[in-house]
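I have a small job for you when you get a moment. Would you make up a two-line entry for one protein for me to read? No commentary is needed, just the two lines. Write everything out right here, beneath this request.
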Amino acid sequence: MDKRANDRDRVTGELQEAESGIVEKRIHLKELQRQRDFSQKKKADLDKQLQAKEAELSAESSQLEAQVRTAYTSGQQERIKLLLNQHDPEAIGRLMTYYRYMSEFRGENINAVNNHIAELTELRQQAAAEENRIAGLARARAAELAELNTAQNKRQDLLATLKAKISEEGSQIERLAAEEQDLARLIAELTSILSDYPITSEEPFSGFKGRLTWPVVGTLLHDFGQPRASDQLKWNGVVLAAPRGREIRSIYHGRVVFADWLAGMGLLVIVDHGEGYMTLYGYNETTLKSAGDWVAPGDVIATVGDSGGQQQSGLYFEIRKGTKPVNPRRWVSKQPKTR
């Protein structure tokens, strides 16, 4: 029996490691996607600038071409003839000023064309660099997806092994009971520690009974008090089925006192609301808060997942008064959808 129990614990530890690795890869994938979206937006902006600069260069080039053609057609002799045929000194002065302005204007156009060519060259280089960056991010994302797929396959193998170990022992109830005891010990330890650091509020948590909202929109999968595996164990909270990655929000003001992996719960976040009340959010894909962080109602603290060896994505949600679970349904204003 001890050997089987040790084997089961070993597989559970491997499952924790595998799920933690999957979490890291999903976070990395989201960051890669964020960078890729940013680069694609930057590339689109650069393309717009290129189009605008090309239009300006075309206009400047056309104007300069017309000036050069005019100068070539009239030729330098035309200017000399005009000057020799003028007997009025003031008229000659005006003509000289006109030709000087025309020459300066033509020089300015040449400079403008050269500047636009330089700007276009720089923009094309930036666009090419951004395109290379996007391609690199795409390759990194593909590699990360392949690693994620491998990690998920390993997780499935570990789940199958764990299920087989439990089946061999015929001890699913024992395992669930052990996991429940682990959670109870954790809550007792936190309650003892937090008694020295009480949370005070002008609007205590107890005053919002029946007025809170669910931490995530989902469908009720398991209800508080329902039998779990057998009549010996019951659900201490509710399980809401929801798509992977959906945001999970804190239901009230409080302080995060736990954000880590726990057997049976997967990635778990516990928030202390004062008066001995705590809310628990389990099975998460990612945790977005750390122990010690303060949260307000509606703050995103995690995302929906299937960690802890769950067969489908969802949220495990529980409310405790001290070490005693209480029915979450009595604390919310609306009841969840049922299947």
